[in-house]
Amino acid sequence: MGLLLLLASALLTSHFHTGSQVDAQTAFTIRSVRLTIEPGTDVARGTDVTVRCQAAVSSSGQETLTREYTIYKEGIVVYTKTTSSSEDFLYPLSEARASNSGKYKCKVSIQSRSLESNAEKLTVTGLSDPVLHLKKGVVTEGEDVTVRCTAPGETGSFFFYFYDNSKEIYGVQANTNQTETTLHFATGIHRVHCTYTVFILPDSFKSNKSNTVNVSVKELSIMPFLKVSPQSMIYEGDRLNISCSVRGYLPSSESIELHLSRENDLLSTGYSEISHSMLAPANVPELRFECRLTSGNVVKVVTNNVPVTELFSTPTLTVSPAEVFQREKMMLTCKSQRYATERINESELTYTLDPEERARPTMSRGVFLSTAPPEDINYTCTAEAKGIKKQSQALALRPKVSVSTPFISVLGTAILGQTIQIHCDTAKGSLPINYTLIKGYEPVAWKTVHLFSEKAVFSITINKTEDIKQYMCAAANSHRGELLGERLSANVIEPLTWATLSAVPDLDDLSEGQQLHLICKVKGSMPVTFKWYRVGSAIPLNITTVQQKHKDYHVPVLSKEHNGQYYCEATNPAHIMVRSEELSIEVRLALWKKALIGGMILLVVSLLVLAMCVLHYKSKRVKVDRAVVSVWTERKPETAVDEESSMVSNEPDVEYTEVVHPRSSDPARAPPRKGTDTVYSELQNAPQGAADLHDYGSVEYAELNSEQPETAQRHPEVSGCQDLPVPVD
């Protein structure tokens, strides 16, 4: 049962929003809380200010709700009150001060619920004038003066300032509106006032000046007394006696303390009288002594400046010669240029050298002989007379290093006909170094090197390769004279001037299957980079660099594809490219191909001739009608004709009939030939059935054979178709 009631109570409580409360009798809600400042947020100092907090609360039932009001200033609780009244809550600020300035906020709490108002800022302007009070206006020198500064009616955190004749002399922080302190003043009349500042974070407010009070300080009759003896014509090394004492009467029971000092050096201390004895130091043209008297807050000081005359000047140390080279003789001289002849003579001055291990004195005063060391060294010398020692400034001796034999070289590449940079240098030697470029034995150029970053570089041009060997360098950095180096030995690049391209074997003998060597030859220095090209292509066929002036490009097996124009290019370290003229390559057929083609041509020609002969022979036959009778004229048979006749074995059977025609006796005609014209009639018997295959008509052929010379009759020619019968018209 109790658990059910607890759950029901929790559900009812969660039903209401923040700022409302429900119990068994009364439900309420805080609707709003509002804070106001009256009569306003900006008021003058002394105004009565009221901070009003208004709470709007709605409730059910008749039961009075208890309210708790909390006032905040800059987030800090300044006032809290619990009341059951529903009236506005008032927080009064009577006669508001600057310390009341700040941001105010109000919070209303009822039971377990609360609500805050908005913040309002109150600014109170104006501060009360401070009041300065002194216990005594007339005091004796060294007496304390008690002063008090008050900020009437102000509250907060304060900082008080005290001024003497408008100059700030003291400041102190205080948590109350007044402060008291002790001040000390020198003799005379002093006008004293004060001010204060109130800190109200994050702001601060400064007051006006207080009233001014005069303070009179009377001087005591007691005084310190300082005496220096002798008082004039004091030279370095003279003995000085200094005393410090008290003169006058001290009415109080305060003790007196004396301090004697020179600059920052305390020489002596005492009570009634103190003294000190010393030698006038060197190199101090004036001595300043001070006698200080202290009694309580009273401090009195007297000073005395004593001039001191120089006994002798600070020595100077010099070296001769001005340029000293390692391990060479040198002379060091220590000398004071001035000295007081009325006090000392020159013989009283003594000189010493430091370090003295490497130097030995000479008969001349202050002169030392030594050998320049191989390393740098600092020398000083000291002059002394009548107990006064003066040291010279350090002489930094940096013995120079003599130049070594110079060497000569070429910067970059030496190219014939172009500007060449020649560099002269030495392995060691102190700067500056004078370099001379010599051609043959005549100087042609000079340069002085002052910095290690500098180089002695000379520009020349040579037109013959052997001219490079005529140059050499000379170097000097001392009185010893120049050192001459060796002659220049450098490779001179001769630019390429022309290129030629030739072929092996000869161009007229090029045929397929052969090897080809395209030889590119140049004139100039090596190494040479050769490139071979075929016209029409920008990509080289071959690139090679060799230590020779010619190189070949090898084609192992020639073919028709190698026909074309070829050329070569070449460069060397001079970077001047030369190009050959174009070379025309024409590859002919191989010998066996020529023989094969010739044989084929002869074979074809022979076949054609044979075919023509056969056709011509067949065309002489006379075709007759079906009886197939042919008539031929024939000379007397000869052996050749018989052989020719016998070769035709497959011809039909032929019978010949001789017919003799009388010859014309007309003398106008061609001269008669021996023999007779014989006509042969050929009777050809057609085989069985031939008439069906050929329908030939009767044809008669006649051959007129002229008389031939005897030699022709003895050696008849049988070639071609000469002896074939000629048809008779």
Automatic annotation (TrEMBL):
Residues 642-679, 704-729 are annotated as: Disordered. The chain crosses the membrane at residues 595-617. Pfam families: Ig_2, Ig_C17orf99. Residues 1-19 form the signal peptide. InterPro entries: Ig-like_dom, Ig-like_dom_sf, Ig-like_fold, Ig_Fc_receptor, Ig_sub, Ig_sub2, IL-40-like_Ig. Gene3D superfamilies: Immunoglobulins. This is Platelet endothelial cell adhesion molecule isoform X2. The lineage of its organism: Eukaryota, Metazoa, Chordata, Craniata, Vertebrata.
